[in-house]
């Protein structure tokens, strides 16, 4: 029997236990006040000490999800990882996670890589598996884990780190909207990592923003068409999302992106003869702009931002809590936005509502899709309750100085691609880990990594 209402059963998020204040970083870097905090919309920047890596974060978030939701390891039949943080050119992070599953070795899936999009493609793979004849009634798990670091300079403030685990299965409180998966993929060099001696990306910042917005335009117009078909109605009558979650390199880009959606909605109403709303008149005088021209017009961007401010505050800004305070997590980013959305709303506000997600990975691959929340506020309360620790984790992190932040990243840069000195640590070398966190306990002379769990409760 075909399973029904496939979607998200549970979510778990992990981020490092220390951060750098962006206002202090502005002063230390000698840039104008507000460049990071207002211009980019960022308040804090999370980062890892050498005790943690992409594998340890994936181990932590996976174990926390299983324990918090009382999921037996034998209930998992599919597990795939999205990451672009390379530790090994052959051995996948998924294989490290298998340490958590005991004698359950029959779990499909490996790692998926394409910049920040790998987690979303892993999610699509998981949904496809759940809907297929290969699914044997067990559940699927998707893990996204990344560390975003940049060379010292203007991009370093847009780094971050974190991991998200997503449990998927039938009869879910967040159900994927069937046949709604608007995709866009092209060949671009906006952000890529061709140098094996460095983990830093080669980035064309302006091109990357243009590519992001172009992909958004393409995905959104197709998304609106697919929603209409899925709902069995015309493009203007389909039920629109209540909230919008975006992949978030920095928060200001999300506000600009949401502003474009307001403009695209106006264009759709004009094309299909629908009634205008209060903001349509704001776009008068820009009718001759092509979509490509509109992406580079600062005047038009300013008009869009002003016209959509009220909607942004209600529909997208609540989804930016984690991005503003942890930075760009890469593959987990759009799902951190979903977590922010859930913990920022009540069950009654979410019940029956549609949530749109826009995922983007440079190079490039992008998608817009959506979930619809159950009408049952009790199930939503359970889902939100399982994330009740997140704001406390944010508030309890240790603030470090910009000097310390730059020192840690400089040491990371110098150590990258060099054979590490073998070591073994009975406890974290740098301290500050939350209880229940996996940490890198040793690397031997053959580069083999081992991990331990720091004792204590995870929340």
TrEMBL record:
<keyword id="KW-0443">Lipid metabolism</keyword>
<dbReference type="GO" id="GO:0016126">
    <property type="term" value="P:sterol biosynthetic process"/>
</dbReference>
<feature type="binding site">
    <location>
        <position position="208"/>
    </location>
    <ligand>
        <name>CoA</name>
    </ligand>
</feature>
<feature type="active site" description="Proton donor/acceptor">
    <location>
        <position position="84"/>
    </location>
</feature>
<dbReference type="InterPro" id="IPR013528">
    <property type="entry name" value="HMG_CoA_synth_N"/>
</dbReference>
<dbReference type="GO" id="GO:0006084">
    <property type="term" value="P:acetyl-CoA metabolic process"/>
</dbReference>
<keyword id="KW-0756">Sterol biosynthesis</keyword>
<feature type="active site" description="Acyl-thioester intermediate">
    <location>
        <position position="116"/>
    </location>
</feature>
<dbReference type="GO" id="GO:0010142">
    <property type="term" value="P:farnesyl diphosphate biosynthetic process, mevalonate pathway"/>
</dbReference>
<comment type="pathway">
    <text>Metabolic intermediate biosynthesis; (R)-mevalonate biosynthesis; (R)-mevalonate from acetyl-CoA: step 2/3.</text>
</comment>
<feature type="active site" description="Proton donor/acceptor">
    <location>
        <position position="247"/>
    </location>
</feature>
<feature type="domain" description="Hydroxymethylglutaryl-coenzyme A synthase N-terminal">
    <location>
        <begin position="3"/>
        <end position="173"/>
    </location>
</feature>
<keyword id="KW-1207">Sterol metabolism</keyword>
<dbReference type="InterPro" id="IPR010122">
    <property type="entry name" value="HMG_CoA_synthase_euk"/>
</dbReference>
<dbReference type="Pfam" id="PF01154">
    <property type="entry name" value="HMG_CoA_synt_N"/>
</dbReference>
<dbReference type="InterPro" id="IPR013746">
    <property type="entry name" value="HMG_CoA_synt_C_dom"/>
</dbReference>
<comment type="function">
    <text>Catalyzes the condensation of acetyl-CoA with acetoacetyl-CoA to form HMG-CoA.</text>
</comment>
<dbReference type="GO" id="GO:0004421">
    <property type="term" value="F:hydroxymethylglutaryl-CoA synthase activity"/>
</dbReference>
<feature type="domain" description="Hydroxymethylglutaryl-coenzyme A synthase C-terminal">
    <location>
        <begin position="174"/>
        <end position="452"/>
    </location>
</feature>
<keyword id="KW-0753">Steroid metabolism</keyword>
<comment type="similarity">
    <text>Belongs to the thiolase-like superfamily. HMG-CoA synthase family.</text>
</comment>
<feature type="binding site">
    <location>
        <position position="256"/>
    </location>
    <ligand>
        <name>CoA</name>
    </ligand>
</feature>
<dbReference type="Pfam" id="PF08540">
    <property type="entry name" value="HMG_CoA_synt_C"/>
</dbReference>
<keyword id="KW-0444">Lipid biosynthesis</keyword>
<dbReference type="InterPro" id="IPR016039">
    <property type="entry name" value="Thiolase-like"/>
</dbReference>
<keyword id="KW-0808">Transferase</keyword>
<keyword id="KW-0752">Steroid biosynthesis</keyword>
<protein>
    <recommendedName>
        <fullName>Hydroxymethylglutaryl-CoA synthase</fullName>
        <ecNumber>2.3.3.10</ecNumber>
    </recommendedName>
</protein>
């Amino acid at each position: 029997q075909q399973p029904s209402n496939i979607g998200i059963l549970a979510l778990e998020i992990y981020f490092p236990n220390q951060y750098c204040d962006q206002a202090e970083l502005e002063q230390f870097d000698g840039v104008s006040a507000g460049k990071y905090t207002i211009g980019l919309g960022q308040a804090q920047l999370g980062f890892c000490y050498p005790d943690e890596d992409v594998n340890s974060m994936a181990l932590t978030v996976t174990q926390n999800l299983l324990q918090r939701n009382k999921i037996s390891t034998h209930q998992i039949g599919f597990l795939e990882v999205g990451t672009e943080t390379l530790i090994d050119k052959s051995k996948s992070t998924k294989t490290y996670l298998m340490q958590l599953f005991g004698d359950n070795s029959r779990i499909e899936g490996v790692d998926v890589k394409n910049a920040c999009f790998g987690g979303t493609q892993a999610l699509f793979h998981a949904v496809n598996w759940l809907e297929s004849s290969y699914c044997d009634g067990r559940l699927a798990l998707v893990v996204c884990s990344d560390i975003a670091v940049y060379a010292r300079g203007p991009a370093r403030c847009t780094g971050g780190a974190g991991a998200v685990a997503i449990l998927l299965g039938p009869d879910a409180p967040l159900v994927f909207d069937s046949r709604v998966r608007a995709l866009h993929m092209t060949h671009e060099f906006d952000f890529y990592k061709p140098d094996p001696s460095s983990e830093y990306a080669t980035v064309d910042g302006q091109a990357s923003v243009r590519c992001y917005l172009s992909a958004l335009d393409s995905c959104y117009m197709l998304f609106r068409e697919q929603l209409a078909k899925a709902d069995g109605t015309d493009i203007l009558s389909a039920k629109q999302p209540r909230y919008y979650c975006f992949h978030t390199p920095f928060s200001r880009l999300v506000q600009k992106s949401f502003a474009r959606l307001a403009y695209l909605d106006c264009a759709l109403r004009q094309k299909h003869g629908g009634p205008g709303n209060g903001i349509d008149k704001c776009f008068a005088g820009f009718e001759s702009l092509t979509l490509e021209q509109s992406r580079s017009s600062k005047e038009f961007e300013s008009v869009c931002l002003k016209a959509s401010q009220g909607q942004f505050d209600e529909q997208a800004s609540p989804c930016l809590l984690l991005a503003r305070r942890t930075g760009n997590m890469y593959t987990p980013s759009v799902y951190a936005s979903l977590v922010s959305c859930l913990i920022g709303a009540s069950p009654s506000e979410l019940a029956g509502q549609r949530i749109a997600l826009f995922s983007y990975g440079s190079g490039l691959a992008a998608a817009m899709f959506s979930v619809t929340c159950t009408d049952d506020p009790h199930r939503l309360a359970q889902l939100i309750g399982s994330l009740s620790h997140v704001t406390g984790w944010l508030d309890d992190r240790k603030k470090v100085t910009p000097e310390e932040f730059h020192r840690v990243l400089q040491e990371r840069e110098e150590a990258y691609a060099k054979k590490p000195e073998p070591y073994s640590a009975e406890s974290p070398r740098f301290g500050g880990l939350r209880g229940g966190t996996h940490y890198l306990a040793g690397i031997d002379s053959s580069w083999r990594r081992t991990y331990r769990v720091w004792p204590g409760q995870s929340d």
